[in-house]
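If your schedule permits, I should be very grateful for your opinion on a structural question. Thank you for your consideration; the sequence and its tokens are set out here:

===
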Amino acid sequence: MRARSVLWVSAVVSVPVLLAGALPSSASAMASFPASAHAAQTAHKGGPGSGKSSNQVDVLTATREEVTQKIQQLDAQYAEQQAAVADAEVAVGLANEAVGRARARVTLAENEVEIARQTVRSYAVEAYITPPAEDALRVLSVGQSDDASYANEVIKIMADDRHKVVDILVGKRKIAADESATADAAAAAAATQVATQQAQLGELEGIRSEQESLANELDDRLDAALAEAAALAEIDRQMAAELAAQETALRKAAATPSPRVQDVAVPAGAAPEGTVPSNGTSPTGPPSTGAGPSGPAPTSPAPTSPPRTVPPSPPPSPGVSVTSVGGITVNVAIADQIRGLLNAATAAGFNLRGGGYRSSAAQVATRRNNCGPSYYDIYQKPASQCSPPTAIPGRSMHEQGRAIDFTSGGALITSRSNPAFVWLSQNASRFGMYNLPSEPWHWSTNGN
């Protein structure tokens, strides 16, 4: 009987030991989650420039329709990606809620396992101190035991109770293991959602960077267009006004404010712990009128850092030598080739005239009036920041005498279907003159 009790005690004591390895620690499983999330994030995360690449457009030479299409395309991509980021934020929040619920269930199950383990341990100690045989003898000796059948029932109840608690321990262990596996799966799902959100944030940042690059390019285009409008005003004021208005509107369309990636709100607790959830003396000159109405000179100080990465053009050189060829004032360096071009055009039946050289002094005075009096205001501030927008002096080929706005028969060439434009497109390059695609009338030595 004593040997039998020792075996029973050994079995009871061994149950907790054997079951100890059956349940992976939820703490260790959860500890691996941040690492896995970070790995997934590293594998999937996008970065600046990783946005959906749209067709590249040379903004300086593209038509207005092409640039508008580019702006609309980027705006649509940005809105689409913002929606994707918002959806990802919701998914991350839901995934983390699932992780939290799973952790709570694991904790509850482990508490129940510990209670059952303590009960089994107490029974094991009791069985060692008081073997089952001695319990049976005590039961048989009590006064209430009127017969043997009653004693047998009591002994059976005691044995069943001890076996039942072992079964409870085994069952609770299995429940805890299942809950731990559920928590691991929820953690993996949350890691995937975090990685997805990071990738979408990278896409968003890429699109935003492309928008900013486009805006900077349009600043240069606006400068060139406004300088062209100022030169064009001498021969066609209506076209000059239309050009300035259209290019200004194009720049404003690209400057529609939209939140930076870091401004996109991420709900508190949306990403699990350990993950990353997802800026002198001013020159003088005679007063002059500009391409638009004058406004008061700004009094705010110049910014401490340049507004664009493109280096500003230096002040125009005052030593430009010009001469008149066929009624067009041009740089003496290109006088012979322009004379040859005009003679060839006359022979082909076209009476080409137009506007060439334009002094930069008037542009300096206009910039001072519309942009401010400092060196930065006149020579560096983007045209779009002036009121009204005004080109930086020195940005026009007209100021070098190396550009001509052609008229044919006294009218400005405003269409690429104009016969004079067709002739120029076939012959001007022989004389070193090239067209700016967005402006049919404008021809220069470098196409700008």
About this structure: Confidence is low (pLDDT under 50) at residues 1-54, 260-316. The CA atoms of residues 91 and 412 lie 59 Å apart.
